[in-house]
Write a structure and sequence with these properties.
The complex is a heterodimer of chains A (155) and B (351).
Chain A: H1 2-21, H2 25-30, E1 36-41, H3 45-62, H4 78-83, E2 89-91, E3 95-105, E4 119-129, E5 134-141
Antiparallel strand pairs in A: 1-5, 2-3, 3-4, 4-5
Chain B: H1 2-18, E1 26-30, E2 33-35, E3 41-44, E4 49-52, E5 58-61, E6 65-69, E7 75-80, E8 82-89, E9 95-106, E10 109-120, E11 125-130, H2 131-137, E12 145-146, H3 149-155, E13 159-160, E14 164-169, E15 187-191, E16 195-199, E17 206-210, E18 220-225, E19 231-242, E20 255-264, E21 271-275, E22 290-293, E23 298-302, E24 308-312, E25 317-322, E26 327-328, E27 331-332, E28 338-342, H4 344-348
The chains are: A alpha+beta (155), B mainly beta (351).
């Protein structure tokens, strides 16, 4: 019984110490060489939600399939559509976010496919910390992978 | 000796000045993709063909719809339909000129025809005209043409009565010696096989029709009226020479063809300026082509497959050849047209 208590105490201690070790995401992303961070003013949480919905709609429109009106050639190959993934909007206790994976060029421009020599797979994260007046938009390489769970997104 | 050095210096200076062109902040537009002047992709926007506006808005057209997206990435309005070839802005920047498609029944057979739309920036259709009316007014019988297999697949019909491919407003013209139909605010629309038409400002009347003989089968693209009052066009099919054997009843016989950029005087359709390659067959784009007058001396033109060219009429030489303008994901793609535009104001909204 005492040993069980000890293990539990150790687990709690380990858990707490891990939580203390967590960097904020903004701190971590600042260390990445090739990344872009933009911020936009929003007046409220509702405004932030609208911004995210609008952004999601635009991204869906960007990758909307259409045919060249005369050659019938598809605007996007099926492979390209499959490798550009628009994330869902997630609302959590402290934040609202949308994490997407796109092939992007060196300027962070979207609308690329893996066939392009000048594009690599990147993460596009839009983050709103509740109570703030700022939306942060991050673009960074998908490799090495950063798991958002390992970081404090909104301190 | 010093005079010779001075003369060489003046020659060099003169040559560099005459080759300079003010393209600062210009970028290329290929469909809905903005490219650097070296052809590299810079930004991609939704759609197949786009108008990029200074206020940050984009008019985007596909085979499904025509939409206006504002600088906040919001779709402001949508007009459903099949839109093709090009969308242009009126000269005052307040109206959109679009070419659409619709099916009509001729002798109980469904046939594709073009329709021209003038739309305001709120998405209201101000004027509309259909190809059948234009062809009838011009005295053309409106006989149907067999469509390409891909078009047949899209529309599930075999024939079309028109194949419009460019639609522009006529600008303010310098000088006074112009035919009365070439008036600011009228429109010029071109169709493969039918030649080009000058339409009144409400699109209702065909004021003039031309099928210049310099174009075989009236295969032209991107026909415009310059501010000097000349027709500027991409002539896809110019006859270089005739083959030896002609089989009667099987068309005009085997022809040698090339393409050219041409500026024609409206009064007599004489060529005022042109670009042809040497040898002529070296420039050949049978199905597509775009032409833009950048300034009095300079043309920017693009063919279907190989690239974009910036050409000095005075020097009869190129400022630049940009093959990458046609590359997407490292593959050369058939391209309807490339245009250049100062996008500094637009891009301020999309940083």
């Amino acid at each position: 019984m005492p040993s069980k208590f000890l293990i539990l105490a150790l687990m709690i201690f380990e858990g707490c110490s891990t939580a203390q070790k967590k960097n904020t995401f903004v701190q971590e992303i600042a260390n990445i060489k090739n990344r872009s961070i933009k911020s936009f003013y929003v007046s409220s949480g509702d405004d932030a939600k609208k911004y995210l919905e609008k952004k999601q709609k635009f991204l869906n429109l960007l990758f909307e399939q259409s045919k060249n009106p005369f050659t019938a050639r598809p605007r996007w190959s099926e492979k390209c559509l499959a490798e550009n993934n628009i994330g869902p909007i997630k609302e959590e206790e402290k934040h609202i976010s949308m994490e997407s994976y796109f092939y992007m060029d060196y300027f962070g421009s979207l609308g690329n496919c893996s066939d392009s020599v000048y594009a690599g797979k990147g993460v596009h994260l839009i983050l709103y910390c509740k109570g703030s007046h700022e939306i942060l938009e991050f673009k960074y390489p998908a490799e090495p992978a950063l798991s958002l769970k390992d970081y404090v997104l909104c301190p | 000796m010093s005079m010779r050095i001075f003369a060489i210096f003046v020659m060099l200076l003169n040559s560099s000045f005459s080759y300079s062109i003010e393209l600062k902040n210009y970028q290329l537009i290929n469909g809905c993709t903005i490219r650097e002047m070296n052809g590299r992709t810079f930004k991609t926007f939704p759609g197949q063909i786009c108008i990029i506006m200074e206020n940050g808005s984009i008019v985007s057209a596909t085979d499904n719809h025509l939409i206006l997206i504002n600088k906040k990435s919001e779709v402001v309005w949508e007009i459903p339909g099949h839109f093709h070839h090009q969308v242009n802005l009126s000269l005052d920047g307040k109206r959109i000129l679009a070419i659409s498609s619709e099916l009509i029944n001729v002798k109980q057979t469904p046939i594709r025809q073009d329709s021209l739309l003038i739309v305001d920036l709120e998405g209201k259709i101000l004027h509309k005209q259909i190809a059948r009316e234009i062809l009838q007014q011009a005295g053309l019988m409106g006989e149907s043409m067999l469509m390409s297999l891909t078009l047949q697949e899209i529309f599930k019909v075999k024939n079309e009565i028109s194949h419009f491919n460019s639609f522009y407003e006529i600008p303010k013209l310098s000088g006074t010696d112009h035919p009365s139909y070439l008036k600011e605010g009228n429109y010029i629309v071109n169709g493969t096989g039918s030649g080009f038409f000058i339409l009144s400002s409400n699109l209702k009347k065909v004021l003039h029709h031309e099928q210049p003989k310099v174009s075989y089968h009236s295969r032209m693209h991107d026909v415009q009226v310059t501010s000097q009052g000349n027709y500027l066009l991409f002539n896809n099919l110019v006859v270089t020479g005739k083959g030896l054997i002609d089989f009667e009843g099987k068309g005009p016989g085997p022809l040698l063809l090339h393409s050219a950029i041409m500026e024609l005087k409206p009064s007599n359709l004489k060529i005022v300026n042109q670009f042809e390659a040497t040898p002529k067959s070296m420039f050949y784009s049978a199905f597509c082509g775009g032409i833009q007058e950048l300034d009095k001396d300079t043309w920017l033109f693009s063919d279907v497959m190989t690239g974009t060219y910036i050409y000095s009429k005075k020097k009869k030489d190129f400022f630049a050849v940009i093959p990458w303008s046609h590359m997407t994901n490292d593959v050369y793609n058939p391209t309807q047209q490339i245009k250049a535009q100062d996008l500094s104001s637009f891009l301020d909204h999309w940083k």
